[in-house]
Amino acid sequence: MENALNRRKEKKIISGYDRLVEVMGAHKTLGKKIVFLSGTFDLFHIGHCRYFLSALDAVMQATGKGREDIVLVVGVDSDAEVKERKGPYRPIVSQDERAEVVAYNEDVDYVVIKEEKEFNWELAKLIKADFIILSESTTVIYDGGRDQMIKDIKEWAEDVLVLPPQAETSTTGKIHRLLTETLVNAREKINSVIDELLGGKP
Description:
This protein is of the alpha/beta class. 52% of the residues lie in helices and 14% in strands.
């Protein structure tokens, strides 16, 4: 079972853009629609799983094609990119492990680790993506807002689809909650030790 899973994972994870372009070109000749989305996928959670499935559903509705005619490519942000964008203590999980977790998801066809300092959605243009998938949360923080972001990104693909949040949770939210609970517990223990040292006196 372990060997079968490893073979499946190794087949999905593409090392290098040249190889990815080659593979996508083969799918294009078969008339398949290439769908691209990217993210950090740190501390993988249910929202990520729903994101992949919703992306496929949205493209099937937009094109009338079946799942067999759609290729979902997921770009995983490199460790260097995440650290630059989210701070020195992120990511929690390394890029290779994050890519592997994504590859095990049955809705994902291919995974590639995005190269450092990649310009915007250049990878989507490189593989001639038919659709780029965005999260609503991404468009909110974009300079110019949702409409401007869609307009800018359409330069890189034939169409852009924006999906609503797929879960109430987020990786950043989970980290904040864990840190908050840890700090609260630590404070309670410190207060307890101080009370003991003072003999319960205020």
